[in-house]
Amino acid sequence: MTSLTLHKQITGWGRYPRALCHLYRPERVGGVIGTLQHAEPNGFLPRGLGRAYGDAALNSEGGIILMERIDRFLAFDESTGVVRCEAGVSLADIISTFLPRGWFLPVTPGTKFCTVGACVACDVHGKNHHHDGSIGNFVRSLTLLLPSGETVRCSREQNPELFYATIGGMGLTGITLEVELQLRRVDTGWMVVDYVRTRDLDETLRTFHERDEHYLYSVAWLDCVAQGRGFGRGVLMFGRHATVDNLPPARRQNPFTIPRKRDKSVPVDLPEFVLNPLSLKAFNGAYYATHPSREGVFVDYNTYFYPLDSILQWNRAYGKRGFVQWQCVLPYENGMENLTRILETAQRRHAYPFLSVLKRMGESSGGILSFPMPGYTIALDFPIRNGLFEVLNELDKIVIEAGGRLYLAKDARMSAETFHTTYPQLPRWQAVKTQVDPKGVLQSDLARRLRLMEVAK
Ligand SMILES: Cc1cc2nc3c(=O)[nH]c(=O)nc-3n(C[C@H](O)[C@H](O)[C@H](O)COP(=O)(O)OP(=O)(O)OC[C@H]3O[C@@H](n4cnc5c(N)ncnc54)[C@H](O)[C@@H]3O)c2cc1C
Prior knowledge:
Elements: E1 4-11, E2 18-24, H1 29-35, E3 44-47, E4 63-66, E5 73-77, E6 82-86, H2 91-98, E7 103-104, H3 116-122, H4 129-132, E8 139-145, E9 151-155, H5 160-166, E10 175-182, E11 184-185, E12 190-198, H6 201-211, E13 217-222, E14 234-241, E15 264-265, H7 277-289, E16 294-300, H8 301-305, E17 311-312, E18 323-330, H9 335-348, E19 355-361, E20 375-383, H10 388-402, E21 405-406, H11 416-422, H12 426-436, H13 445-449
Bound molecules: flavin-adenine dinucleotide (FAD).
């Protein structure tokens, strides 16, 4: 049984673009299967909690299958830390259920309000990519519902090509019903963090390379407004899970208990004038000034991994027109020059990002359309303004020339040509897609925009 709920306008997290879709909200797996019996001119797409930024989870005038109620835990092996759960289980559910037993996520993006099925579809990465790679590396197996109605299991051993097409496959190879995931053993809910403030881009990159291998997690906040001598300065945050012995004595009895923070919220869309170069300069300067280098700071896992989650609807801070996050990965070769070109171009064109995050990436998980590759990844948040997309097209060109690519889970505007040029394994992915979904039942706005099923011209 399933019911057609709403014909409604929805968006991704960036609130751009908007799409009118038919929303279905099945309560059980049977309902997901039943939904596919409906006629939808633009087919169907599974959706988690809508935290992909652009149009990855949109399907204009098509069906959207909300997976949020397909959220049961099915099995857990206490000795190995392997959990089997339905795809709509959120990362927050996994943490609240298993952290008290000493298990944490093996890889986590910067929000826990997302579903495990979607994290596999995006092959998400975290601050430990240089060390562990993306979530695909920790997926033991998947159970997929194909458009034919058939349910198949896939893993590295069983239907491997379908497995690798689904990891990072943006929900287009099948609807993931179940995921078997390897969790990470931890002793506490706390992190020990070293903060290093750097003076310029050269020092930022050098510090990453010198220190990274000694830490499980690393990430840098960059001041993208600073020019001249301070160009590329930032604050690097190196972290690891604290052991019980690391904790102050008062915390050792309850190592998984962390302080509850009161959520704040952005109640209305902020007007555009609030985010201008002057306010950004002031914000960046203040952030830099208040984050001096410090070693061995105790931080609870929420503060370290999910700093934005406690500000509900923070995406409203960018104003009514919404925002895009532009995230690329650039190979290490000429990485310094290419990062400089990107930041300089943005500054020259007065496109100042509100938030800039830099990380180092290691090897790919093998997902055919997975984003990560060894190199630097930089994510820049831009409120939508007239002329912004022209600037981003210029940045895309730098990425193409560098041999890098853009992240589909964040993208809302790259051209199909850019995508086809930078994802060379697309034909291999298309072969799997044609086999499991010959009629193109699973579709999305992203897939149509990037002409995912078309051969490059
Ligand atoms: C504050 C913030 C920080 C972030 N940080 C990071 C980060 O550090 N690293 C990173 O990699 N990403 C990051 N992201 C992106 C986000 O984590 C991913 O896009 C995540 O997959 C979103 O999950 P969701 O449940 O909201 O999925 P949605 O946005 O609803 O869907 C995302 C994709 O998953 C597909 N999908 C959903 N459910 C299924 C299913 N059951 N079967 C098959 N396909 C499915 C959808 O079709 C869509 O293509 C961040 C996002 C936010 C808002």
